Queue: 4 jobs
Job 1
Amino acid sequence: MIRCQKDFWQTPKPIPEKSTDTKWKWFKNCLGALDGTPVKVHVPECDKPKYITRKNEIATNVLGVCTPNMQFIYVLPGWEGSAHDGCYYVVDGGYTNGKGFLAPYRQTRYHLNEWIDGYRPTTPVEFFNMKHSSAQNVIERCFGLLKMHWGILRNPSYYDIRTHRRIISMCCMLHNFIRREMVVDLIEADANWQFQDGNSDANNYITTVESSNEWTTWRDNLAQEMWNNRAVH
């Protein structure tokens, strides 16, 4: 499967200008959603300090990018981190809002479970965050479904870390194959299924992506445009 992996990864396609998808039509040219998830592993005693998480678990952090239809584009260590000119990924508040990475506004209501009991956004910033969360949520669902399918991603195996990383990549490729070939995924179709990713490192901010006035202004303009057109869409 590793040798044939080019046949399993999904090719990213920007959200088209005329998209009618209620979750994604606001984010023209977006390639998908990006986030990380911890996967427990076994490593030699001397390497444990490098893999310890905030919950004192030994895990490797897997960075993934998926399309709106929940197929993986990249998974680290194969993730290249590049984006096409003019395109970008939606990311959560743990990432810097910078070129190629559209993050929500911090210190503002964001997660989907915060928009319950009929609460509606009252400002462009809140409206943007609500729509952004609805779109970015796809990568969390993707990781949750991935771990429901393969128990080896929920608990540490006794493979060495190099082999375990390959297993992670193969599980992601099989995930794409299932979504491509099966009309219905029985786990996802189960009404009782609840995805729990347990991302223990969600607050580790990426500092290598620099924000810019241009990118901040673009986000502000997009938020205002979305707010002005909320009644139409």
Job 2
Amino acid sequence: MGSAILNSIAPEEPKVVVPEYGETADIQDKEVSMEQLCSISTYDQWTPLSVSGQLPKPRYKHGAVVIQQKMYVFGGNHNGRYLGDIQVLDFKTLSWSKLEAKSQAEPSESAGAVPFSACAGHSVIQWGNKILCLAGHTREPAESLSVKEFDPQTCTWSTLRTYGRSPSSRGGQSVTLVGDTLVVFGGEGHGRSLLNDLHILDLETMTWDEFETTGTPPSPRSEHAAACFAERYLLIFGGGSHSTCFSDLHLLDTQTMEWSRPKQQGVTPESRAGHAGVTIGEYWFITGGGNSRKGVSDTLVLNLSTYEWSVLTNLEARAPPVSEGSSLVMHTINGENFLVSFGGYSGRYSNQAYALKASLKPSVPSQQINESDTNGFSPLSVAENSSRKVIFEIEELKDEKSLRLKQELTGLENRNAELTEELHLVQDQLSIEQTRASKFENEISDIQQRLQKMDTLEKEIESLRYELDSTVSEEESSSGNELHRSRGFWRWNG
């Protein structure tokens, strides 16, 4: 995506030169600090971040998580090569740095060994002040799924010991924190086999369990998105198989272990795989991904209480936040929620970071006013100020609703253009088929005419044979003795 479009999203931001990996980003006009995120004034629009430090190598299908105002990025894929590095974006300074991690020394390991193998399609989960890393595609896949723990304070890796039957190794799965458990679903295993099995790891006992479920589970898939709601419900959205992408939504009640299909409302989401999701309260934000036809350009929001979909914003199809395999995290500054997207693939590999300030705000309790604290203001003036505040809030809601309607209208217009293009393609194919059918009809008519001529020829031949037989019979009757001596050509009389 060109820089002109990105600058139109946030014209107040300084220009950023984003080079290939191995170089340093040049920042103009102001010192980079955490205030840059706070300075984003527009809600629900993706804004490129001005960053400093050595940029990470472009990648997709990596993992990312936020701990103590830092985003940790693990591994990924670049040009078919698995990465094993750890990159950190400090939200205080918006600067990149690379961590050199070591392993927690064990008798069978050297102190300098790094157990985090280069991988892609893995899952990283925050657990307290530690980071858990599970599954993923590697150059030398193991038979079973292992659980590794990274301590940001000491920059050390360790492999956790688990009990029970571990799931088979895989990549592109979802790993979701539900209470004190990790729920692993689906993914792509050995031999590109697609999975829809469910495994639960109890983080208190570190024991794996494979539960029996009722209802109809999602079909086998990978590169889907998963979320937890009310520390009880697991939601699975989208994903893909080897032949198609999905747009379905599935719900698992982890107390009854029953699968169901919630009744969805609002806009109908496009099928997608390779997307990313993050929850803020009862809202689930989905961005990125694509299907067999294109990259998906909308950022969606699902109300987890009503299962109503809405479009938060639209971007051009090749914009990095639309990329397949990008990461998405949430960071809160001064009560404002920011989504941060990094990396991905949209025709080329990206190493850019983008931020979006979500307009969903927590409810603020009404302010109580005591007569002794009015500082000379009468109750009437307070009421007038409250009325003005209500009017301003109503106007703000109208503006937000108008913006939402415009965004939905834009989405519908884009969808209409796509359907019109598909209709033209179908009409062209129909015209081709009609031409072929007309050609076949002409060939059939020609064959039928030839068959009629053949019937006529056969009748003429039969007539000639009859006449010949009659002539021969007359000759036989008139000169029988001579025919007995010479033996005829057409008949054999013995």
Job 3
Amino acid sequence: MEHYYFYSSFFGRFTTFVVLLVVLHGGGGGSSTAKAATKLQWNESVLAIQAFGDSFLDTGNNNHLISITKCDFPPYGRDFIGGKPTGRFSNGKVISDLFAEALGVKGLLPSYHDKDLKIKDLQTGLCFASGGSGYDPLSSKINRVIPLSDQIEFFKDYKRRLKRGVGEERTKSIIENSLFLTSAGNNDILFSYFGTKLRQINYDVPSYTDLLVNFASHFFRDLYDLGARKFGVLNTSPLGCLPFSRTIDGGIARGCANDYNEAVKMFNHKLSSHLTSLSHQLPHSTMVYIDLYNPLLDIILQSTKYGFEISKKGCCGSGALETAILCNKFSIGSSCANTSEYVFWDSLHPSELAYKALVSQLIPQLYN
């Protein structure tokens, strides 16, 4: 299935950068409620990974779209197996791959749109995520990518294919013992709210974060109705400290845009509380809130502690604005000589090494 979406009219401070309004991740602020939500039990084994959401997890689902929010071209994938650009928004692997590897499921998580999928691939899960998507349906319309509602439809098709291959009973077992990994909220806050200001017309930050939690709740309930029982939910990242945000709203010194981070922390607090509530409302479910915000913020602010030298700009181009189609082999300065020195690959997405440093702090949160 191919999905094409029409752009909404953009206005606000980012109008000049409409070509840049691309993808994103997940991660977010800490609180006592957030920490409580991560202490849920996770005793059963994980047979498969099912990934939903945005570019932190997308392993190539945007490749077939007519959209600027894609990266199936060099220098993306420069440090991937064979130096191949696969549609992953990084120089190498992304979070969904690293989770699958760390949990012993498989080395790479293929995208739903991979044309070479075999039954063995289906049995260990797929990636349905789409860079540029979010809990808010407006985000996918702005970026012309795959909304969560269509990711759900893809998952339904996946279940049908799996059932034909391994039977109904085995399919039920695989789904119940899959980790449903989700990353969303980044594009919603960074672009739909602050970037285009389209949501600011009707919502202030508190009411918009309430809206996002409502969208998220419906999404998780839909997955639950389809058999999902184990949820790992990445919170929203420290958006204000991304190179892109520093360039747009960080002032002359390119400091962190605090308004963005405050909005993220408000949303993350509400998301954590709601996941705790959902875990009690949905029988036999495990809802694990995974704090990505604080570990990533620490990597950014104390980069030398993790072996990185540069955290205020990305490796690609000038490192200040380039991402997706603007991060290409013709970008000014092309890409840095040594990716290992950089926290960020482009102006929005961490490098593979930074993702590895991050995931090493995320995986333990799945367990009590």
Job 4
Amino acid sequence: MAGVGRYERDENQLAREEAIATVDVLTSEVVVPAGETPAGAVWLSNLDLAARRGYTPTVFFYRHNGEPGFFAADAMRDSLARALVAFYPVAGRLGLDGDSRVQVDCTGEGAVFATARSGHYALDDLMGEFVPCDEMRDLFVPPAPAAASCPRGGALLLVQVTYLRCGGVVLGMALHHSIADGRSAAHFVETWASIARGAPAADAPVPPCFDHRLLAARAPARTVLYDHPEYKPEPAARAATASTYASAIITLTKQQVGALRAACAGASTFRAVVALVWQCACRARALPPEAETRLHSMIDTRQRLSPPLPPGYFGNAVIRTSTAATAGEVVSSPVGHAARRARAATSQGEDYARSVVDYLEGVDAMNLPRSGVSRADLRAISWLGMSLADADFGWGSPAFMGPAIMYYSGFVYVMNAPGKDGAVALALSLEPESMPEFRKVFADEVARLA
């Protein structure tokens, strides 16, 4: 999927979009769990409280496989109701405990489930035009409740099944970030999909674990040994970027990924790809050589702790990390140097992860800075571990899965490219004035590696 999606559009573009980009909502209802679920509350960890407040909207595109009943609303609704039995906190609402700490009240009130139809889009058209942006989110993901935050916010899960002109389907989903990170969201989709394919709800691929006290701060309190600047406000000289951005999806073939990894001395796919994006972004932004540029990342702590978290841990288990360099260092050095810098932002172990949790115990985790990154920086997130095959609801794997929106400039997702073994898809956002140069520089660098 090529092309650039912009928030800032001229009047002709706006008129064209208003004329063609419409989706008619057919039904909208609240789906409650199909059986009895536990009452009470789920305690949220500091990592849950520190997560971005609001929803994470994602989209899954499915090509019609010719079978009758393709993504039938009844089948999707009924399987969702059964999935909510195992994942009962998802059917609850955010609330407050006696100390005014945010928690999940397990009320069983349910999730929003909508169906819609697009008379304009066929799947191939959408695959060619789609970039993460407000317009696409508004078309294919239900709107967030007005009261999305605590106390007593709205539904924690919003789902929309949109039937396209060609018979294909877009499954749009928004799960509240306070209760789940990307890995947990994928776990929920995997379970829902397995139930839709006919598996008993009791035979969930991996039973969910809601014991968030596994990530509680250590007692007695420990001295915090690390600085954790990622959880502190940016200095005034490094103010966050504006929300206006251009977004794009770029695919690297298996051969291109292999060549890039070879140039990065055996670095992981994520680190190698992010290193090249970092270099090209610094060049496209024309940063002065002396300017500080910081690569932010999110790392999963599940396997970094001793003992590791249970395989089905459902919540936020990721921590913010970063590494800094001058733009001149990043641009003038081989890409392998940037990859080694990227490793510095993604290799922390248990001591660092526990330190983050301890640090958050001493601050107001609900009101941490969440306004984006500096114009010189990037925030990179890996979705490489999310298998598209696990999102098969009985009619085949998705033709594409990705974020429905980019929250600000400087965001990068690294994902598996659908249907292309070993290929990688990038969803990224930059300032509108920087994106054209980035695409040119990035294409030149990839060609040079080959």
